Automatic annotation (TrEMBL):
Gene3D superfamilies in alphabetical order: 1.10.287.130, 2.10.70.100, Histidine kinase-like ATPase, C-terminal domain, PAS domain
Stretches assigned to the PAS domain: 16-87, 468-538
GO molecular function list: phosphorelay sensor kinase activity
Protein known as: histidine kinase
Reactions performed catalytically: ATP + protein L-histidine = ADP + protein N-phospho-L-histidine
Enzyme class name: transferase
Organism lineage: Bacteria, Pseudomonadati, Bacteroidota, Cytophagia, Cytophagales
PROSITE patterns: HIS_KIN, PAC, PAS
Amino acid sequence: MTGQQQPSDTPANLTQRLNIDFALQAAGLGVWELDPVTKQVLWDDRCRLLFGLTKDNQLPFEQAIQYIHPDDQARIDQAVQQALLGQSNGQYDVTYRTVGADDGLLRWVRFMGRAELTPAGQVCRFAGVAQEVTPQVLAQQQVQQAQDTLQGVLAIADTGIWTLDVATGLISYSQRLKELFEFTDDTIGMDRVYNPILDADQLRVAQAVNRALDPASGGLLDEEYSIVTQRTGRHRIVRAQAKLYVDEQGTHKLQGSMRDVTQERDTQLALEQQVQARTQQLEASEARYRQLAQSLEAQVHQRTQALVTANEELAAINEELRISYEQERLVRQQLENSEARFRSLIEEAPIATCLLVGRELRTEVANQPMLDLFGKGRSMFDKPLSEAMPELAGQPFLDILDEVFTTGIAYEAKGIRADVEVDGVLGSYYFDFTYKPLRNAKGSVYAIIDMAIDVTQQVLARQESEATLRQFRTLLQALPNMTWTNTPTGEVDFYNERWYAYTGLSLEQTRDWGWQAVVHPDDLPQTMATYQQALARGEEFMFENRYRRADGQYRWHLNRALPLYGEDGQLVNWVGTATDIHEQKQVEAQLEQQVQERTEQLAASNEELSATNEELTATNKDFIAANQALEGANHDLLRSNKNLEQFAYIASHDMQEPLRKIQQFGDLLKSQYGDRLGDGVAYLERMQTAASRMSALIRDLLAFSRISTTQVIAQPVALDQVVSRVLETLSVVVEESGAQVEVTSLPVVPGDRSQLDQLFQNLLSNAVKFRRTSPGGELVTPQIRIKANLVAESDLPPSLHPARYAQTYHCIEVADNGIGFEEKYLDRMFEVFQRLHGKNEFGGTGIGLAIVQKVVINHGGAITATSEPGQGATFLVYLPA
């Protein structure tokens, strides 16, 4: 206020209207006091309710401590004794559990206070405030429970987690991945990540990671690849799944999971599990907060009505005071005493409280907690609030206070951020506060009482919990398979997105026990019986049943669920997975049907078998003889293979040597005795030509043998480079023929570079060699075109059967304008020693296309061709993409 203050506007008058209990109730606090001498506890109704008592606002400390949870009693008793002995500067601030004496409810409470000391150091008073903090404690427990649940899921799913910091290129990973890869460091760079990956997979994995790091592609990674562990050299297959996200600092990170799927790929029975943090409980806690806020608003309204009534009564008293001077003197004396008590009440209030007078909001009274809260000291007094706290400029509080002063409507807020300069340092804090207008006898607002509680730690803890939950949910979405979590009594409270995609249903349709609608009617009774038994015993649940897909089809699934227990040994929740085993069940059913049919056949022929026992005995002897003959044939085959290897050695060394001498001595005969041989020169040349053909035939046979017996070591091979090398090798014949070769962009495929060189060497040399003549008898210039495109497996020609299945194939076309062929001879073309033209017409050994087909088969593909005589030929090579 400014100007001369009237008696009705003084803090003394305010004392008559102020209800300190209302202030504490509005702040959600109760008041308590422990008599150091009698050890009697005195508390208000709110503190009493925190202990679940319907009566007894005064009771012995020994009785009160019995209502504290047994695990907390010793700690609280020790804290009280330390405060009563003046230790810790007499400060008392503890959080513990109470067990309601009458209602049996478990509550988390926070008791704060201090012990006042006499000059002699003796405790003369021990008092403070209390507040229920159950929602905050439960929220923290839920975060810890979510983390424990995640660890449980990762453990039962044998899954590790990893995070790539895009900015630094460093990867951090869990202990499971450290064991799997046999790494020794806690973080590694991207270059070391690729080292264990097999060469055949490195290019694909690197491309997949680059796509995932591009936000425009969706930021998702899902790849399987093979590794060789660092120390022991074990061969494993792993599946990595991840999602790109931006953390609170704006850093791009690729986070996900990885698991060893080697056994799963071998047996098709590996399981993985997921969990979902129980966010519904957090939402329920928030709902309880809203109900509490509504309750507080109702209490504020009741207290406001009480103050209005008190104002009216005070106005009547003031009217009576004017009756006589003596009565006025007595009342003034009373008011002065009340003013002193009012100031004492504010100063002794356990929460930060101050009185702001006038529209300028001058601080007239403030207790020590308020001075400590704002860090201003007594310099705040008698100054407009805007001068005492200039940092409030640009923040909403001055405008809110002015609105309260103008409208006379109280304002209350929780968890609001305020930038306040405390002890000369500007910082951000969060407060629960109440602005309550005070009116004079005329009904005009002349002051505002400000009550505030610092809730910075609670707000920061909630924000941290929310950030943890967001990161947790991101990680869950990176895990595969359908997963769920349910309460200890069996009600399902979470499914991952794969459940909704499979069933086509929402959470509301399938939560709690709604999942029963998806189970096949024939499987439901046994499913429920097994599930209920697992719930009752707290043991692992495992069952096979059929789930209805969104299109109405039922598919078999293997269900597994494990109970998760908290640190106190209590069952927290269940986490389970559903793995599709439909194909496996079909195979089992077929096998069972075959076994049944076979059993029936055996039963039907039992009598025949007993009657023909001697015949079977004779047949067994025949089988023994046949097995002996087969063993002999196998032995002969092994000997034949060994002889083939010896022949290959002989052919590459001993047989080539005589052919070279025939060539050399033939050249000597022609050069030294050619003039004497006469017609014999022609015979000599025919001999040398035959020797050359024999040498070429041996080389081609050796090449075919090596390709047939050599295992392909798959590495990324750029076909553009292969064709360039082959054209360089054939440059002489290409230039002589004037051939024009057109090559479009060709793909990179996994394979053996030397074998792919032979494939294109044979196709291109044939395209140049088999030239046709024009009607005028001139050789036509070869026109060769090489191109490639992707073809889906479903679009392959029906007659083709690639050696290895793939969803897509690279189709490489090699087309020419040569002599062509009739397609009825297509199957013969790829056989060894098969020729469609005479050896005098076109040279060659008849092995080239057989080599081509063998190379294609070794690479998991297939080959065919199309042609018409005189119209050229097109060879189509299909290799897995």
